[in-house]
From TrEMBL:
Active site: 85, 218
GO molecular function: diaminopimelate epimerase activity
EC class (word): isomerase
GO BP, sorted A to Z: lysine biosynthetic process via diaminopimelate
Entry's family note: Belongs to the diaminopimelate epimerase family.
Catalytic reaction list: (2S,6S)-2,6-diaminopimelate = meso-2,6-diaminopimelate
Species the sequence originates in: Streptomyces apricus
Protein name (database record): Diaminopimelate epimerase
Quaternary context: Homodimer.
SUPFAM superfamilies the UniProt entry points to: Diaminopimelate epimerase-like (SSF54506)
Signal peptide: none
Alphabetically ordered keywords of this record: Amino-acid biosynthesis, Cytoplasm, Isomerase, Lysine biosynthesis
Keyword rRNA processing among UniProt keywords: no
């Protein structure tokens, strides 16, 4: 029998992930192997992959090892690397807790966007400290068919363009990345969110994710949307001294985002482990050219 590589499947508001526990960072996860694992027909299927590695065992996380024992080596479904995944951090923490690596309560997770604070109980929602949003000056423009909208450039460790629209159907089928101008604003690509109002401090979004296509949810995107909506509404906790909480409905569920006066953004939402199994190592090797 060939070597088997353990995996789990999980999701956060239906943004789904293949989870590969690999404490000592021994599994060769090339972009092609990740894309094969995330393939929804010929592989396991997922919007992305969470490679679960001890920080001390990964060259990109070694410097964070003293603060965070575990590193979320996140990959998009096309095999590309991204700086951060908000829904992914919640699912990552849920896996660590179920695997007995961490207890309920507070923990730190190393990511390519720095160390994130997480609070989780035995079950129920998980809260992540997502850091601060950067809002580069100057709007960008998002286009779908005959329609174009000004969009807010927001960086949550990863890049976002947030467009307020009259109807989420105006985003079209989102099979392809919606053109964003100027291209120079996003040299490494961008996640694009389309937003409608649902009520006071309550919005809904659709998202085309860099490296994954349209997903049912984007955690960093929900944070970017909450901050862009607050600024559109003239709300800035750094000015008012009062936290601002927004409810963000995504196609896969609901996330609650709070921006604090110090700029820290907290996201709360579900994290579910659905299944576990084994990957055939010989098959995976054939997927790595
Ligand atoms: N596609 C994103 C990474 C995953 C973000 C999303 N799944 C989340 O929950 O934040 C990017 O390339 O920046």
């Amino acid at each position: 029998m060939s070597t088997r590589i353990a995996f789990l499947k999980g999701h956060g508001t239906e943004n789904d992930f293949v989870i590969v526990p690999d404490p000592e960072n021994t599994v060769d996860l090339s972009p092609a192997a990740v894309a094969a694992l995330c393939d929804r027909r010929a592989g396991i299927g997922g919007d992305g992959l969470l490679h679960v590695v001890r920080s001390a065992a990964h060259p990109e996380a070694r410097s964070m090892a003293a603060e965070a024992e575990w590193f979320m080596d996140y990959r998009n479904g096309d095999g590309s690397v991204a700086e951060m995944c908000g829904n992914g951090v919640r699912v990552f923490a849920r896996h660590l807790q179920r695997a007995g690596h961490v207890a309920e309560g507070d923990l730190k997770v190393a990511t390519r966007a720095g160390v994130k604070s997480v609070h989780l109980d035995k079950e129920g929602d998980v809260t992540v400290g997502m850091g601060r949003a950067l809002l580069p000056e100057g709007d960008v423009t998002v286009t779908v068919g005959e329609r174009s909208w000004p969009a807010r450039n927001v960086n949550m460790g990863n890049p976002h363009a947030v467009a307020f629209v009259a109807d989420l159907d105006h985003a079209g089928h989102l099979y392809d990345p919606p053109p964003v101008a100027p291209l120079s604003a996003y040299p490494d690509g961008v996640n694009v969110e389309f937003v409608v109002d649902r009520g006071l401090r309550h919005v809904a979004l659709r998202v085309h994710e860099r490296g994954s296509g349209e997903t049912r949810s984007c955690g960093t995107g929900a944070c970017a949307v909450a901050v862009a909506t607050a600024r559109r509404d003239g709300v800035d906790p750094a000015v008012t001294g009062v936290p601002a909480t927004y409810t963000v409905d995504v196609p896969g569920g609901r996330l609650v985002i709070t921006e604090h006066p110090d700029g820290e953004i907290e996201m709360t939402g579900p994290a579910v482990i659905v299944a576990e199994g084994h990957i055939d190592a010989e098959w995976l090797e054939t997927m790595t050219p």
